[in-house]
User: Which sequence fits this backbone?
């Protein structure tokens, strides 16, 4: 019998079935900036392992404080010593990698005192790191892709207003919003902001949190993962330490992640990939999991 020729429409249908059958491919997001020995931002992107890099951290802002960055041993923003990072940022973006500025961290001095304060901080971020104009851009003239909320202190108030004010600038140039809540659900600091539904990527910290992290089995992790997938957000990422010494608890060996955890969570409609803390500790972890993410 003569072989039936496939019409273009039928071929398209087969392609669509192939695309939507099985697990989705995700990307790896990583934090860079908190250890001067972790290599340059350009080198980080050149590994080819990451799809998103978070520059950490803007540690002081809000309530009338002069904003301050801390980039450990990489460069000194207070003396205008980090403007050269613009070339690295562009090198990353030219490879299709998104580069974010991360706000907060575990040891900053930051909080928002009012809705007006939140709008003021948003204006500062737009003009100094995003698509706006300022004579004192700490990272030079490169335009970052967005802002990451790694809020672990201060108060729980007005982060929603900051998210809305930043999102409003997307009318001029898309501002990606990302967040790094702790895995207990909902997150105490960021619930209000996440409830806006404005976040593109949410990487949940499944470490240093006993109730929901991996601890010999992934049962609790999977249960909390399913709760996080109910929020209104673009994609949800599994946040992990890149080495045992990167966190107090919650490390998952790469072979266990590949064989047990990722297959269980990749079927989620909002699955986006894996976030790693941090570039400094990633001595082969991202390479070991990349093909399975």
Assistant:
């Amino acid at each position: 019998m003569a072989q039936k020729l496939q019409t273009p429409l039928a071929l398209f249908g087969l392609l669509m079935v192939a695309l939507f059958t099985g697990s989705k491919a995700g990307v790896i997001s990583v934090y860079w900036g908190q250890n001067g020995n972790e290599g340059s931002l350009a080198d980080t992107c050149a590994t080819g392992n990451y799809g998103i890099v978070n520059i950490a951290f803007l540690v002081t802002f809000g309530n009338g404080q002069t904003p301050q960055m801390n980039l450990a041993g990489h460069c000194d923003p207070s003396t205008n010593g980090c403007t050269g990072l613009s070339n690295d940022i562009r090198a990353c973006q030219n490879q299709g990698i998104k580069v974010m500025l991360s706000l907060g961290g575990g040891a900053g001095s930051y909080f928002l005192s009012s809705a007006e304060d939140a709008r003021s901080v948003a204006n500062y971020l737009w003009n100094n790191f995003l698509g706006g104009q300022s004579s004192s851009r700490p990272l030079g003239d490169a335009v970052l892709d967005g802002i990451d909320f790694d809020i672990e202190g201060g108060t729980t108030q007005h982060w929603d207003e900051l998210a809305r004010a930043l999102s409003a600038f997307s009318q001029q140039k898309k501002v990606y919003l990302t967040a790094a809540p702790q895995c207990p659900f909902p997150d105490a600091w960021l619930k209000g902001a996440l409830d806006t539904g404005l976040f593109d990527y949410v990487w949940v910290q499944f470490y240093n949190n006993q109730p929901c992290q991996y601890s010999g089995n992934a049962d609790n992790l999977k249960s909390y993962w399913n709760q996080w997938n109910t929020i209104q957000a673009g994609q949800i990422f599994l946040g992990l330490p890149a080495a045992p010494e990167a966190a107090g608890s919650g490390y998952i060996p790469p072979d266990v992640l590949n064989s047990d955890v990722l297959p269980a969570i990749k079927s989620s409609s909002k699955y986006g990939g894996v976030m790693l803390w941090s570039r400094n500790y990633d001595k082969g972890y991202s390479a070991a999991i990349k093909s399975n993410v």
About this structure: The chain has one domain: 27-290. Residues 115-129 form the longest helix (15 residues).
